[in-house]
């Protein structure tokens, strides 16, 4: 039996479903291949604003009815925006799946962007910006995108700017949707105990009547990178730091080996090299981690840590020392085996989350036109060699290739 089932409607919308018989919860959503990187300079933040406005009224429902439709049966309705994706999703008891499917279709395709609701939600988003600016550990990570991608749209903050968000009108949302939405670049994804024919039947009911929608959007690839070092004084008590560089794209064959290398360096395990070297051995940080994010045409690798101002240089030197070790010393047989087992275990546990699995199905179909099974990924991990990891470390993690963003306490 295949891991998932896929059906394409005449209008281009794809339905992907995975049946999980041991659950009573149905997770489903629309994954749209639209994100903040698709915004023009005058549209910064509009994709995220659209995410908010989807709950504020459709052609047949007011905001109150949208918010209460699933809540009254114990369900949840939510959404999120990334650089390349916009997702509207819901979780309900499986006997309410049709109700969720209907509502998700409505908010995805029939939003009306009422003027009064735009004004109210504008204030909410400005408060969201203020909250984010008051959280330096989050702000430094987001701002680091601009250090790496500089004048490219991947460097823009998903929330936008106060100036851009303050000016959006209904016509701006409608134009952004018209410029970016295509029915062959969106997927309805679901994970539940329901059989695929039930999901397919509801797809015919709610989605088949929709017209084919096409747009001529053309994403501009990122290409020019210049290492940069920026120090910013902030009214904070701890230094917050990012070190990183561009990395491999989603389709690059080195993606999984580099993901493993990033995991060895600063993954969620307490035994990561950075955690052992900087926190456990020297007690210089509370949190230190490494993350690798992939995009269609590039990737982003970053190391985050927070430390005392007087320990900033020492902590940075310890981080660079660990990168140097990865470049110069290949993993031993036991280290390599342990790293593979750890990564495979983490991936398997992540797939235990059905809601995360549902989102992964939709994103994979949009990005790769396929879904790699866990066993296929495991086979790739098992084939990784110590020499391959060392070559990748020298290719990506060379000191001359790194950029820095430091938030430094003003006093």
Textual characterization of the structure:
The chain is an alpha+beta fold. It folds into two domains: 5-207, Cytochrome Bc1 Complex, Chain A, domain 1 (2-Layer Sandwich), CATH 3.30.830.10; 229-409, Cytochrome Bc1 Complex, Chain A, domain 1 (2-Layer Sandwich), CATH 3.30.830.10. It contains 15 helices and eleven strands. The mean pLDDT is 96. GO terms for molecular function: metal ion binding. Belongs to the peptidase M16 family.
Structure summarized in a few sentences:
This protein has 411 residues and is an alpha+beta fold. 44% of the residues lie in helices and 19% in strands. It has a six-stranded mixed beta sheet with strand order 1-2-6-3-5-4, sandwiched between helices.
